[in-house]
Structures are given as C-alpha cells and as structure tokens.
Amino acid sequence: MIVGAGPYGLSVAAHLRAAGVPYRIFGEVMGSWRHAMATGMFLKSTPAATDLSAPEPGGRLADFRLLHGEPELTELTPIPCDVFVRYGLWFQKRYVGDVEPARVAAVDRAAAGDGFAVRLDGGREFTAAAVVLATGLSGLAHVPGELRRLAPGAPGPRTLVSHSSHHTDLSRYGGRRVAVVGGGQSALESAALLHEAGAEVRVLVRERRVLWGSEPELVRPWTQRIARPASPLGTGWALAAVCRAPGGVRRLPAAARLLLFRRALGPSGGWWLRDRVEGVVPVHTACRVTGAEVVGDTARLRVTGPGAHCDTLEADHVLAATGYRLDLDALPFLRPAVRDAVACVPGSKAPELSSAFESSVPGLYFTGSLAAPMFGPMMRFVAGTEYAATRIARHTAPRVAAR
Questions:
Q1: pLDDT level of residue 74 (50, 70, 90 thresholds)
Q2: pTM, whole model, 2 decimals?
Q3: Which of 86, 105, 119, 379 would disulfide-bridge 372, Cβ 3.0–4.6 Å?
Q4: 60: containing domain
Q5: 294 and 162 within one domain
Q6: Do 136 and 198 sit in the same domain of this protein?
Q7: Is 67 helix (H, G, I), strand (E, B) or coil?
C-alpha cells in the first residue's frame, strides 16, 4: 500500500506496476501541488530536476511536453506549477492506473503475523504486507511560536495568520496590509504575488541579506564544468556529490547528516523572481519577530534587529513562509504501536532508514522529505524520485510476493 499520490508515491507505484507487484495507492493525485501552491507560482527546480521516475523511457517532463505539442522547457524557462500538475496527472494515467481518493485513517500492526491492518476514513479495512509513506510535506507546516498567538484558537479573528502552504489564491488580500515572514522562495514569491494583487506587503527576513540564485548558463566552458559540476540541485562539487551518492550520505554520522540537512540549500529566491521583488516590495533583512498580539482586527508584531526599521509592525494578515518541521507525530494515521516502534535519527523526529528506505518497523517505508535526514537534500526535491522508487520497489516486491 502506498499513502500519497504526489511525485514520490506515483513513482513508487509506477515501478511496482512494471514489476507486476500488486499495490493500492491512496490520496489525491498531485494534491499538495494543487492545494499548497498559490495560483501563479512557478517551480524553483529546473526541467532536468523535475522528472518523475518511470520504469521505462518516455516518462520525462520533456516527453509529456513533446506529446502534447508544447515547446521544450530549458533551464531559462521557469516551470509553472499548473504545468507540473498536468504532467503528474498524465504520468499517473500512463504508468500508475487507478488512485483511490479515500483517506487512510489508521495504519496498525496486523492482528496475526507480519504486515499491517489498514482502516480507511469510511470504515473499510484491509491488510497490507508493506506500507510506503509518501505523504510529502502534508501536515508538516511550521508556524513559529511567536506567531501562534494569532492562530485559530487565540483571541481575535481567526484569519490573522496562515502558513504559505495553506493558499491557492493570494488575490483575496488585495488592498490589505500583509507581513510576510521568511526569506526563501515561498516568502519571496508570495510577496511578489501579493504585491501584484494590490496588497501592501512587507517581508521580514532573519538573515542579513536575501540570497538569489544565479541565471543558468546553457553552455559552460569545460573549465567551469570541472570547477563547478552541474547537478539537479545546482552547481558545485558538494551538491554534485550528495546528488550522485545519496547512499553515501546515509553512511555519514547522524550529526553530520543533520547538519547537511539543515544547512544545504538554505533559503534563497529563484533568479527569475528577483526583478519582481528587489526595489518593488519592501524587504527588511536582519530582523526577527519576537512577539505578536491581536489588536482589534489587526496583528501587531514586535520586531527587533538592526534591519527592523521599527519596533512594531501592524498588519491585517501575517503570512508565515517559515518552512516545515519533520515530525512523525504529524502523521496521525500511524497508530502508537507502529509510530512508537519507529527508530528516529538522533536529534530529530525523522525515521532512521535502511538503504532500501525501510524503517525499523519491517515493511514500513518512508520516502520524500521524511527521508532527507538520511539520504540528503535530494529527497526534498522531485529529482530524488528515481533513487528512492527503484530501491523501494525492488525491496518490497519479495515481501508482497511471499504473502
């Protein structure tokens, strides 16, 4: 059974189907890409880093574009999210087949023998020899404690704060004052869309400066290719190494892996976004939100730091583009008997995984972002689907066949 029908879930399913292994996959196809991305957003990844993993040639984004008579995308062409969603739907129909939209309500140990007892939202139950969790970032959105007083349940209106992943349409904030907290792609692109929708926007960034990606060069001299080799995540020997050998990352000490997970590919904006933000939207760097309170129908933020420009800031809404926290407790469908048996990476709440992405609970696999503290930053991106899907499918096939 596969939980999640995004890039990783679809890729695992495609490889299982090609191997003749029976499976069921649950979720909304490309659900997060439909509902956690605001209209008008683009992918930060390049076309070469956006292919789902098909078991045979013909399943790349470029193949989808060619089949539909659409022009080829290059590194100089930002990919609209809706194009990627259409590609995912096409991939599902071609390589996966039926996806069941029912929500998985519980995954527990089977009453007898190996395997798992699964209960769906409507009450239906069945058993599975193996469970692959490909739930992406669903449920992992992080809102800092300083802003939680503005969240539902706190005094005042229920709409004063939200996470950037909770929106498909930012135009609703046109004419309103919006404070965007964060300095990465999500914060900067949300700020651009808000400004273009007529909102009065301010961006509050903790770092001393905003980092921007550099415009790709389609043709690079051989000296540059040697000095800074290309990879799906960018140029440079460090990125090339972690992309080429995720299994090597897994063999690093836990502390080194966590440091790599937290430091590699820090917050930055896509090169193509820069002209829509710099000199257009007020961006305050080197400032930190230290508190928040409800004042009437507005949010009042306490802001400190040399770049704050003011001690307080009032806004009609606060958009927290503050990333995600990997936490097994955010997967409520895992029953305690299963969740408590999953060993975690020391210093985190992410699962320890074998070279085949299997957890300490036999038959329970994790892939995508929850596997990044084990296999490195490539698991945070679509580029990691091939590495993960091929290994999970190869490892689960004998277990399923034995039942």
A1: confident
A2: 0.92
A3: 379
A4: 2-140+325-401
A5: yes
A6: no
A7: helix
